[in-house]
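Sharing in case it's useful to others searching the archive later.

Someone asked me privately for the predicted structure of Integron integrase, so I'm posting the question and my answer publicly. Question first, with the sequence:
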Amino acid sequence: MSSSPFMKWIKEELRLRGYSMKTEKSYLYWIRFFIRYHKLTHPRNMGASEVRDFLSFLATERHVAINTQKSALNALAFLYNKVLEQPLGELGFQHAKQGRRLPTVLSANEIRLILDEMCSRNKLIFSILFGSGLRISECLRIRIQDIDIERGSLNVRCSKGNKDRTTILSSKLTESIQAQKETVLEIQARDNQQGVGPSLPFALSRKYPNAYQQAGWMFLFPSTGLCPHPLTGELCRHHLHDSVARKALKQAVSKSKIEGKRVNCHTFRHSFATQLLLSGRDIRTVQELLGHEDVSTTQIYTHVIGQHFAGTNSPLDDIL
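And my answer, the predicted structure tokens:
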């Protein structure tokens, strides 16, 4: 089914509309799953009733998480509303609401213990996650041209929602970043001798054939090997896969003897936000640095530090 003309059409529509590779994989997965669930019936011959049955199946039989169910619904809404132009209308289906979950955060000392157990490259990756509040995918996509050491800033390209933003960059990382840049530029020079270079945004290589030779386009954290470009098929060097970072973190957390906390890459982004609020930064600034569209998303961190609003103390503190 993955190579069927219909699925190829869906993939082309996703790329035409500028969806990320991650979203493309997710949508294609759920659309295939939906078709298989209904015994390979063509989606044109189905509608709201079949979508409702599928979502109910995911909830009652597969016991998927609420966010997983939302992902499936988004994929099918894209299929019917935008591609097939057969609007689903009112489904009469309401998924359960996600209760508020407080994220796990690490103290400054716990961050230090974990970083001390890492090699220089991995230490730099997680230092940027904590120091700049990045998602792991955003960090691994950093190119040399995105770094401005003099201004202490970092440009985040094509983030969630396909938006760019600028965040802070710690001056303490200057030496480590310079050393990493020297290492990756040597890799780029060797690749260029073979006529290859870093993977480039779609169609850029056709517009600027020599862009792969420019230092600015090199990833700060390149992969260890070459691979075909996912869109063009050209041989190139992509950025490091996030599974490498996750494995390194798991090992470092184990060695650091931190117990009772479920630590993942996103924990460093959560810790960045809470540390800024604890140091007195206003919530709007934190919202901008994290790239949250709605301040209510950022508001969760004020609950993490035990204060409904940053800077609000218990009234007991004033009398004791």
